């Protein structure tokens, strides 16, 4: 527990056999449940998770690949079902520094519904690969007016913490399942009136390959931005 509240971490994973063990081991001991959601990996990700001895570790497996958003959604549902009050997301590629988790948790314990990591506030230009920095900055810049989250400067960062009440205020089943999920969730929460705060987090990169190329970004971005605006209309916003 943290701050008197039961805490869960959702960890989406797809073909992360090389890093998933490290990612799980880095989760602080005060976390009550770790839901690793294996999104139909074709490598030994699930086997690696089963070999880890850690209290509260639960492996969920998708029968087919559904996307990172769908994996996080599965973890959120499981955390709610087990009575967790705050749910953080940490990726299965060990790119989230556990030293930053308390700051995210403190933000929601302090009254926010959703705490969003901001890598740009932590010398992102010096530590993030140039392509990721530029791509993330562009998508974030476009997301702000589409979602009306003007104060959120890193919409693509997946390091987050959210309250049970915030999760229950939106329709999880309607969220975008793949790349673009962070933007869709951000817009849905903003439209529902959830307080969202930016929290500086460290960028962590280990030279791993990113499967998100220009074709994926350019192909998905227009649809995601359209959905961001749609959430406001659905919820009676501007």
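^ structure tokens above, recovered residues below v
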């Amino acid at each position: 527990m943290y701050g008197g509240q039961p805490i869960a971490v959702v960890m989406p994973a797809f073909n992360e056999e090389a890093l998933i063990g490290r990612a799980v081991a880095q989760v602080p001991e005060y976390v009550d449940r770790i839901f690793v959601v294996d999104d139909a990996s074709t490598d030994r990700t699930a086997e690696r998770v089963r070999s880890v001895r850690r209290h509260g570790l639960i492996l969920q497996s998708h029968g087919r690949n559904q996307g990172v958003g769908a994996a996080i959604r599965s973890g959120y549902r499981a955390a709610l079902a087990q009575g967790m009050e705050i749910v953080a997301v940490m990726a299965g590629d060990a790119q989230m520094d556990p030293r930053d988790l308390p700051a995210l948790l403190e933000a929601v314990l302090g009254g926010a519904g959703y705490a969003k990591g901001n890598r740009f506030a932590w010398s992102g230009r010096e530590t993030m690969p140039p392509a990721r920095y530029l791509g993330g900055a562009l998508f974030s810049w476009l997301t702000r007016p589409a979602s009306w989250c003007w104060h959120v400067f890193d919409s693509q960062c997946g390091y987050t913490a959210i309250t049970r009440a915030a999760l229950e205020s939106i329709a999880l089943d309607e969220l975008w399942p793949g790349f673009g999920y962070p933007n869709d969730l951000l817009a849905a929460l903003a439209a529902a009136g959830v307080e969202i705060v930016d929290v500086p987090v460290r960028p962590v990169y280990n030279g791993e390959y990113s499967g998100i190329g220009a074709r994926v970004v350019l192909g998905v971005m227009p649809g995601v931005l359209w959905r961001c605006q749609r959430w406001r209309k659905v919820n009676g916003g501007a």
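The chain is about 40% helix and 15% strand.
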